[in-house]
Amino acid sequence: MSAATPALGQPGSRPDSTEQVGTPAAEEVVPAPADRREPGDVLLEVRDLRVSIPTAAGPVHAADGVTLTLRQGEVLGVVGETGSGKSVTCRALLGLRPTPRTEVSGTVAYPGLGVDDITGLPPRRLRRLWGRHVAMIPQNPMTSLDPVRRIGDQVAEALGDTVHGAAARRERVIELLRQVGLPAPERRLDAFPHQFSGGMLQRTLIAIAIAQNPAMLVADEPTTALDVLIQDQILGLLLSLQRDLGTSLVLVSHDLSVVSQVCDRVAVMYAGQVVELADTATLLSSPRHPYTRALIGALPGAVARDEPLRVIPGAPPPLVGLGPTCRFAARCELHEAACDEWPTELLPVGAPAGSPSPFRPALRLVSHQSRCRRAPDLATADAAPPTTPKDQGEQR
Q1: How many whole angstroms separate alpha carbon 335 and alpha carbon 150?
Q2: Distance (Å, rounded) from C-alpha 315 to C-alpha 271?
Q3: What does the alpha-carbon distance between residue 380 and residue 309 come to, in Å, rounded to a whole number?
Q4: Sign of the Cα pseudo-torsion (216, 253, 374, 59, in order)
Q5: Are strands 248-253 and 216-220 parallel, antiparallel or unpaired?
Q6: Domain ranges (residues) in the chain
Q7: Exposure string (b/e) for 288-315, b if CB count within 10 Å is 16 or more?
Q8: pLDDT by residue (tens digit) across 327-379?
Q9: How far apart are the first and last CA of the chain?
Q10: Which residues contact 243 (CB under 8 A, 6 or more apart)?
């Protein structure tokens, strides 16, 4: 074992990993006892979250007025094309910022953990939340692990101070690697990341995330860099762990077909905003925002085999200097002049709250919400289908 890396019996290499911070007890992150967190209890509550990144061209509003909730045991999908703000938003749920100068406002509360708001907490306070209460599976497994540290040491570091003694820590690391499906985990402890395939690296990152059995996992596009077969295996693993551990899961993806298979609810993001939020079955069968409708229409299998795939004309707007009106207007087939005067809000549409989740019947879902003035029109049978631009060369 390299002398530069901590042994499996050590709690970790970061000097501040066990630092004591002199803060009032009332401000400490204190988890609710596991037996008091029942399915359906609100674990996460986000209100008017705004993340602004300063640039030479002006502030980029990567998240602009995001409001949503996550319940205990729920799987929430966050979907949108590249640049929609989904990854920045979900990192903000853990208090992570793209740059030190990033401005964050709004509220990110964890009622299920007794935490009122994390948006203003310094990193040393956030470290009490990370790992033991909330954890993240990062987007790219190839670049997310330290290339010069052994796999076993990196997983052991994620244990924090929850397991003591070299032998006990080693056994726990082996157990975690076995739990995520790595073959012969005893022989993998001394391997380096470059000796693992992409799928094995992703499984290792999942083992690190679940090391302290957190109440919530955020998986940021966990299947993007993997082939189709491995993607299915990783999704199956995440769902199996979510059920076994009772963990809530936020699954970030640009692929609506992925989240539709596994999520209780889906939040659709466009240009920094949640434009539609509904349970998965309702979203797929009765979308109430033109962008969601167009995304579904662009899925392979949404059109006859002899027809070209539908595309969404135009491109998303830059996230600088945007006003309060609809950000999809320039690409929308239902756009009217009145839309330019209507300040968009995420409002209830369709059926009221309280329907059971098809994946977890004990979980009661919230209402269907849309940010479109024409949402009622999309419920009618004569609503125009998504159009296919004449120029098939346009980019989605």
Answers
A1: 55
A2: 10
A3: 24
A4: positive
A5: parallel
A6: 41-133+214-379, 145-213
A7: bbbbbbbbbbbeeeebeeeeeebbbbee
A8: 999 999 899 998 988 878 888 886 555 555 555 555 555 689 999 998 888 87
A9: 49
A10: none
User: Of the CATH numbers 3.40.50.300, 3.30.110.30, 3.20.20.70, 3.40.50.880, which one belongs to the domain with range 41-133+214-379?
Assistant: 3.40.50.300
pLDDT digit string (tens) for 48-86?
999 999 999 999 999 999 999 999 999 999 999 999 999
3-state secondary structure of 27: helix
Residue 234: strand, helix, or coil = helix
- Length of the chain in terms of residues written: 396
**Assigned token pair, 292:** 């969601």
Tell me: the pLDDT tens digits for 89-135?
Answer: 999 999 999 999 999 999 999 998 889 999 989 989 999 999 999 99
Three-state secondary structure call for residue 381: coil
